[in-house]
Every structure is written in structure tokens, then in C-alpha cells.
Amino acid sequence: MTEQSIAKLTICIVLASAPMSLEPLKAQSTSHSAAEPKSSAVDAKGVRHQISEYGEGRAPWDADMVKFVKPDYPSEYRARHIEGTGLFRITLDVKTGSVANVAVLKSTGSSGLDASAARAIRQWRWRPQSWKEIEMPVTFTMRARQAQGGSANDLAARARAYYRKGANDEAITTLDELIRQHPTSAAAYITRGSAYQQKGEAEKALSDFNQAIQLDPTSARAFCDRADLEDELLRQPGKALVDYNKAIELAPNFQRAYINRGVYFLEEHDYERAVSDFTRAIQLTPNEPGTRGYRAYAYAKLGQREHALADATAATKLSPREAPLIQAEHLEVRSDAYRILGQQELALRDLREGVRVMPRESKANSMLAWFLATCPEERFRNGAEAVSAAKKACELSHWKRSDSIDTLAAAYAEAGDFDQAVKYEKQSLKDSSLAPKEREEREKRLALFQQRKPFRDEF
Questions:
Q1: How far apart are CA 374 and CA 448, in angstroms?
Q2: Cα–Cα distance between 95 and 130 in angstroms, integer?
Q3: What pLDDT, on a 0 to 100 scale, did the predictor assign at position 7?
Q4: DSSP string over 346-380
């Protein structure tokens, strides 16, 4: 397994991160004005957390909510177009996660709306032993109902659904309308940029990320997603690292930024720094087994077999989500864990399933091709199928990803066509952004192919 077979979490966490407590009520852009009340929380140890520390816009106290009841928007207030945003302090019973008390810190401007919000909040529940106190804004608004093409939240939710299915064109069309309605929504530009990135349209993606940063220079998510683009499609690793660092500076508890910077360090063969970032991500979200899959790979490369096996075992417990894009990424992570454990049959199963759910995703096809071309166990190798999958990966990435071209070279070697293997390995080495150690590995593969020998990926 080489660094090109590690899947980066570019979007999946972002698209699932809208706060549960706000989205059913608030029909406005997901970007926040400075005047809006912000959510914060005190954890079970007494440490206060601010929403600004979390780059996705979804804080851990949102993720830990296990029961949500939508506040009623009384008809008499809707009829009179009475709106308002309130901020509520929620005191929890730490042992049970139930609500012990609700206090109004900032009124919605209407005692009736305040009372409606409080009645609903008293029914909410959080995971036990997690939080002592939460400050949560709740908005009642009629403005969304007047927008053409659907409310801002409706459009954002529709775009997320399209994106998660891999329907990027539909996502972009929906976001075009959202941006027309809310031209200052940084979040809309970020999501549209992500859709363009998935299509391989790097310049359009970069334009959207740049616009998002111009609109909101404090958006850690915008810097993180631009870093992903710079690393993966633009092949500008130096700029990518600067943007990852900026994202973490802006949001010190931004889990995905640590994960993706860790993957960046894997690509640079800087395994110790990768372990450090993955460890921080695990501290932030201990129950996320996927992150342990990334750390398992880094430990394996460092020769720390015991740690690698422990993390890989935890990663195999990952249950892929239903959304196709997220499911494919989770399957890729879990397949790496199975490979570290030597369970090749299960690894191949997950890789095939990843291609089934996202047949036009370049990374999924490339990872399957790499496995079929380089697996140490002969019964799992298939040169012809590896070439087919690797060609598809190259075509889907418009022949711009040198890692997919490297995979195609390995596939041709497994199929016995060493002239083609040499040709494409040399082509992959033209990538000037390669880390020195990655270039060294590819040069070793080239030497093997020139000797008419295939490559085997073994730990």
C-alpha cells in the first residue's frame, strides 16, 4: 500500500455537520453574522468550548445530542410575521444527559416564542457524562418561505444530498440558486467549490474557495478545503500546508483539519507528524474508528506493529454511512485496516463495494486497481482488471493525478506488459510536487519494471 491509497476526508464531515438544533428552524444562509448569538458549552470536566474552535460549524455538543424536539412556531406568531433569535442556557444532569434547567440569556423578543423554545429544549437529551451546560441559539423566521426556489436551508440541504450521492452537477445548480439568493454566504461557496473539486474542475473550485475566504477570512473550513484542493489537484503541497496550518490556527479543535493534515504528512512520508495529527483528531473525537485506520497506516510505516494492529482492529469496527460519497471513503479507510491485519479478502470486498457505490470516483477505482495489481497474495491479483480500473481512475481525474498513473504502471506490470509499465511510471515521475521519499519509491518501482518484475506491496 502506498500513500496514494489513503483516502482523505475532504468533505464527508462537512456535509453532515449542520447543528441539529438550528437547521429545522432556521431558514437562512449557513453563514453567521457577527451579531448572531453563538453556541458554546461546558464539558463534564468543567472546560468551556466555543463554536469558533470547531471549523465545520458543528461542535461536539451537537454531535452528542441524542434527542431533538423541534420547537413549535405558534400559528398566531407566524400569521403576524413575528420573528426572533434567542439564546438559551441549558443546564444538564451530567449523569443522564437530560435537561435540568433552561434559562433565557437573550430573548427572541417575544415571551411566547421564548416559552415555545424552552418547552422543546426541556425534552432534548445529550449523551451521558459529556456536558454540564450548553448555550444554544434558536431562531424563528418567516423569511425563508418567501424565497424563490426554496428556502436557503432547503437549498443547502438539497445541495448536500446531491453532493453526498455524487451528483455534483445537480449540487452545483442548486448552489448557484442559493448563491443568487445569498451572495455573501461563504458556506455556499465552500460547498460549491467542493463539488467542482470532485468534478476535477480545479480552477472553478479555487475561485469559490478564494471567494469564501474573502467573504469570511475566519472560516477554518474554507482554508481546510482549499488546502485539500491545493494538495490533491493543484499539486501545490507547500501552499496546502500553509492553509492547513491556518485552518487549525483559526479553529484549534477542527478535527477534519488534523486528519487531512495528517494525510498530507503521510504523502510526505513524515509518519511521526502524521501520528501526532491523527492522535489529536482521536482525542477530539474518540469514538471515530476511521481516524484510527489512518493512524494504523502511519504506525505500520514506522514499524510499530503492535500499535498498528491495535488501531487497525479498532478501524474495522467502522460502519460506513449510507450517503454514497461518505460510504465510499469509509470503505476505503476500512479496507486499509483489513490489509494491515492481513485480511485481504475483506479488504477486497470493501474496495469493490466502494467502486459499486461511487463508480465515477477516481480514488475508489485507483485503490481497487492498486490492490488487484500489488497484493502479495497471488489469488487476489488480477492484472487485466487492475489495468481497466486504473485507466478509469486516470480518465476520471483527467490524467492529472500522478498517483493514479503510478497505479496504472503497477497494473500493467502485473498484467505482464512491462513496456507500458515503464512508460507510465516515467510519466508519474514527471510530477514535480512529489515528496522526495515518494519519488524514491516510484524510482524503485521503475527499476523493477525495467527488469521486467512486478511490484508487491508488503508491510
A1: 13
A2: 8
A3: 55
A4: HHHHHHHHHHHH-TT-HHHHHHHHHHHHH-SSGGG
Closest of 229, 233, 224 to residue 259, by C-alpha: 224
pLDDT in tens, 202-238: 999 999 999 999 999 999 999 999 999 999 889 999 9
Spacing of C-alpha 174 from chain mean position: 21
Fold of 40-146: TolA/TonB C-terminal domain (3.30.2420)
By the 8 A CB rule, do 322 and 357 touch?
A: no
Provide CB contacts within 8 A for 380, sequence distance 6+: 344, 345, 348, 371, 372
Which among 2-16, 23-37, 73-87 has the top mean pLDDT?
73-87
| DSSP state, residue 3 | G
DSSP 3-state assignment of 173? helix
Locate CATH 3.30.2420.10 in the chain. 40-146
Cα–Cα distance measured from residue 411 to residue 392, given in angstroms and rounded to the nearest whole number: 12
Please give the Cα distance from 213 to 382 (Å, whole number): 46
How many H-runs (helices) and E-runs (strands) does the chain carry? 21, 7
**Residues 6 or more apart in contact with residue 446 via CB below 8 angstroms:** 409, 422, 425, 426, 429
DSSP symbol at 98: B
Per DSSP, the residues of 174-221 read HHHHHHHH-TT-HHHHHHHHHHHHHTT-HHHHHHHHHHHHHH-TT-HH
The CATH architecture annotation of domain 147-249 reads Alpha Horseshoe (1.25)
**CB 425 within 8 Å of CB 401:** no
User: Which residues belong to CATH 1.25.40.10 in the chain?
Assistant: 147-249, 361-459
Please give, one letter per residue, the 3-state secondary structure of 219-255.
CHHHHHHHHHHHHHCCCCHHHHHHHHHHHHHHCCCCH
Q: What cell numbers appear for 316 in the block? A: 474495522
Structural class in CATH, domain 361-459:
mainly alpha
CB 172 within 8 A of CB 81: no
Amino acid of residue 340: I
DSSP 398: T
Total-model pTM: 0.75
Distances 78 to 145, 310, 337, 399 between C-alpha atoms, Å: 11, 55, 53, 54
